[in-house]
Amino acid sequence: MAELVLMTALSPTMEEGTIASWSKKEGDTVSTGDVLCEVETDKATMEYEATQEGTLLKIVVTEGSSARVGDTIAVLGESGESFEELLASAPAAAPPAPEEPSTAETTPAGESAGVPAADGPAGVPAPSSAPAAVPPQVSPTPAASGRIKATPVARKLAAARNVDILLVPGSGPDGRVTKADVENFRGVPTARPVSAGAVAGLPGADERIPVTKIRSVIARRLSESKFSAPHFYLKSSAEVSALVRARSSANRELDSKVSFNAYLMKFAAEALRRHPAVNAGWQETEILQFGSVDIGLAVDVGNGLITPIVRNCANKGVVAIDAELQVLIEKARNNALAPEEYNGATFTISNLGSFGIEEFTAIINPPGSAILAVGKTIATPVVDEDGDIVVANLMKLTLSCDHRVIDGALGARFLRELTQLIEEPARMVL
Amino acid sequence: MPEIQMREALRQAIDEEMARDKTVFIMGEEVGEYNGAYKVTKGLLDKYGPKRVRDTPITELGFTGIGVGAASVGLRPIVEWMTFNFSLLALDQVVNNAAKLRHMSGGQLKVPMVLRGPNGPAEYLSSQHSQAFQSYYAHIPGLKVVAPSTPYDAKGLLKTAIRDDNPVVFLESEMSYGWTGDVPEEEYLIPFGEADVKREGADVTLISYSKPVRMVLAAAGELEKLGVSAEVVDLRSLRPIDESTIYASVRKTNRAVVVEESWPVASVGSHVAWMISRNCFDDLDAPVELVASEDVPMPYNHRLELAVQPTIEKIVDATKRVCYME
Questions:
Q1: Quick count: other Cβ atoms within 10 Å of Cβ A160?
Q2: Mean pLDDT, rounded, for A34-55
Q3: Do B284 and A178 touch (CB under 8 A)?
Q4: Does the bond joining A91 to the residue before it have cis omega, within 30 degrees of 0?
Q5: Fold classified for B196-322
Q6: Of the residues A109, A164, A215, B26, which has the maximum number of CB atoms within 10 A of its CB?
Q7: pLDDT for A96 beyond 50
Q8: Residues near B312 by beta carbon (within 8 Å), at least 6 away in sequence
Q9: What's the pLDDT tens digit per position in A209-225?
Q10: Residues 6+ positions from B6 with CB-CB distance below 8 Å
């Protein structure tokens, strides 16, 4: 059945994108993960990867033309299939109704919006490499529009004191900066701009950026972890083709698509269930083996990161995990997480695949003793069992372990289990 | 200084002005033989006789019109409405004649009259007899409107109203006729357009007028316990209105809560809130809050009757909001 391909938010602030070029032409076969087209956003030119499969039946928005997020840019389906009726009912490049939340701010990037995301198979909601559980923060969140909420008198006072109001953490509703916030602000005054007649090309002045609350919590917790827990690292590559196929087929039958991260969390939970000694924490006088598998996912919130936790993952299916994850990520972006929603992960996953990172090492997020760093899926030539060179879709996994709790062999058994589960999802039922 | 009731302060003002100026007279339902529905005119019939203290039939449009006519030919009538709920019947005389004759006659006529009586809710009077109509009158250019909250202010403002050469709508309150306060024996006048800071404070400006001022002062006492220093501005005069006192206070505290007992839509309070938002924009640390009556006809059920009116709790809550305390 023919499906519409919709313009999606490829950057957090994107409202509209221009098709720079089409990588596929009408009649071409498209597989999940293929680059369909390149889109110029407000930030950069991004690759638009297909999350649907089929034949490109129709290019609706041609090269050089632009489309708002949510507009139809193409139609996919079976070769020769009729799609005119579908297209006629599509939300194609019509002026957006004002009440429709069409901007990126209300459409979280990633798969929760029900539209294809720009990231690869490891399509993730903005992860980051340095996970830490930190309180949701009331802070300078200069929205991408450059607007910041501040009361008029706070602005006047900031101007009088030569303080950049963008740097002042706001304590009012939605982070509104109040007069008291400016009065209590201990940051540095704005540097005076160089006079207009200054010679162009001079080096910029040093800038002192006050440490926000979230930044100081990240600094403290990760220093503690890195300096007290002796880290060691294990690396593995997982062949994800089977998982991509399984997910793709499951997604076709589900009301909303389940994110790749939800699968990773489920596999990690199962591996932890089979190796409970990894699901544990160092408590100085004893090792606490956690009864529940509570997995945190590092989420980038623009000015820091936070790790919302899906509790009891071992006893939940991917649909349930994903549903919780979407709610938590939305809350994380709105600084609305409750402490119990980000404190106390027994295991953590950080996924930078969508940034094109091939592999990286992450710092353990206490009280857990291990963190999994997930890289981008890369098509790689490998030698198969018959000695032939074939293309494998490999995703690099790096496990950071706290040696006080996890020895090399235990970590290796766990990582092998996890890799096998990802490569052969049917092992889940073993 | 003697402590007297509000009704006595009003009586003294009328008495003194009638003694001072023979053109001053009062008329209305029950003002003479019965000494006033609320005893504001007690003893005046005996003292000044039936020519200057006139009982009228129950005909608000008629006797208000007689007042307009008398004022336009040189007398200074005080028209008492038994309540402002009945003043609706006289509205055409007030709006089209009292407020307009100076304009329509090119300045040849003036209408020095006072239209006074209790306004706003009392108790157990249900929807038709519990209305606060200040915005009806404050809306009209050509009228002056005052709304005192204490015996002292009531006397000083009423004497000014009687001497004013323009129609003055004087809003009293049934519930406050028995309130007492210090009133000096020597004569004094309070000019229109001057608000009174009833309580000094630093953190928030509570603006009110008429009967609710007393509740606002009580709320300020509750706020003190929460560590909030509230300044209470009593407008006293709604038209003309003392903008400079309002703005000076808000510029000091950066926060404002307006409290009144009329409905909130197109009210005096919503107008004041707009003036603050417009003229103190750069000084505000929070949106201006308005605590008014709920936007419903007054219920007869006493619990509901109290619930729809401003309360100390509502004022404290609104103040917490502008102080970001919740």
A1: 9
A2: 83
A3: no
A4: no
A5: Rossmann fold (3.40.50)
A6: B26
A7: no
A8: B215, B218, B219, B222
A9: 888 777 888 888 899 99
A10: B150, B151, B154, B172, B176, B177, B178, B179, B180, B181
**Partner-chain contact A153 B324, CB within 8 Å:** no
Q: How large is the average pLDDT for residues A356-384?
A: 94
Kindly give the pairing relationship between strand B76-80 and strand B24-28: parallel
Is A403 designated active site? Answer: yes
Give residues with Cβ within 8 angstroms of B28, minimum separation 6.
B54, B55, B56, B63, B79, B80, B81, B82, B117
**3-state DSSP call for residue B264?**
coil
Is the separation of the CB atoms in B281 and A180 below 8 Å?
no
Chain B touched by A149 (CB under 8 Å):
no
Q: Which tokens in the block code for residue A305?
A: 């990161």
Which residues of B fall within a CB distance of 8 Å from A138? none
Residue of A nearest to B282 (CA): A152
Look up the CATH superfamily of B3-182.
Thiamin diphosphate (ThDP)-binding fold, Pyr/PP domains (3.40.50.970)
Give contacts of A170 with chain B, Cβ < 8 Å.
none
Do B284 and A156 make contact, defined as CB atoms within 8 angstroms? no
Closest chain A residue to B277, measured at CA: A152
Contact yes or no for A369/A401 (Cβ under 8 A)? yes
Average pLDDT, chain A: 82
Q: Which of A147, A144, A73 is nearest to A104 (CA)?
A: A144
- What are the sequence ranges of the domains in chain B? 3-182, 196-322
Q: Which amino acid is at B66?
A: I
Distance from CA of A407 to the nearest CA of B (A): 49
Which two tokens mark A8? 């999606």
Q: Which two tokens stand for residue A294?
A: 């509570």
Mean pLDDT, to the nearest integer, of A116-122? 39
Is it true that the peptide bond before A189 is cis, omega within 30 degrees of 0?
no
Task: Average pLDDT across each block of 10 residues of chain B; the chain has 326 residues. List them in order.
Answer: 96 98 98 96 98 97 98 98 97 98 97 98 96 98 98 98 98 97 97 98 98 98 97 98 98 97 98 97 95 98 97 98 91
- Residue B53 corresponds to which tokens in the numbers above? 């203290």
At residue A230, φ and ψ (nearest 5 deg) are -70, 110
- Cβ neighbours around A118 below 10 Å, total: 20
Interface test with B, best of A179, A181, A183, A184 (most B CBs within 10 A): A179
Which of chain A's residues have a Cβ under 8 Å away from the Cβ of B278?
none
d(CA B80, CA B29): 7
Task: Give the residue numbers in B contacting A (CB under 8 Å), as ranges.
Answer: 254, 281-286, 324
Contact across the interface for A156 and B254, Cβ inside 8 Å: no
Is A156 within 8 Å of B282 when comparing Cβ atoms?
A: yes
pLDDT exceeds 50 at position A54: yes
User: Could you tell me the pLDDT band of residue A145, with boundaries at 50, 70 and 90?
Assistant: very low
Q: Measure B218 CA to nearest chain A CA, in Å.
A: 26
Which value does ipTM take for this structure? 0.74
Question: Touching check for A154 and chain B: CB below 8 Å?
Answer: yes
Chain B within 8 Å of A178 (Cβ-Cβ)? yes
pTM for this predicted structure? 0.53
Residue showing tokens 């510029």: B251
In this complex, is the C-beta atom of A173 within 8 Å of any C-beta atom belonging to chain B? Answer: yes
- Which of B203, B249, B285 is the mutation pick for testing A, counting most A CBs within 10 A? B285
B298: closest CA among B179, B169, B125, B162? B125
Domains in chain A and their CATH numbers? 3-108 (2.40.50.100), 138-191+206-211 (4.10.320.10), 215-429 (3.30.559.10)
Asked if the model's pLDDT at residue A172 lies above 90, the reply is: no
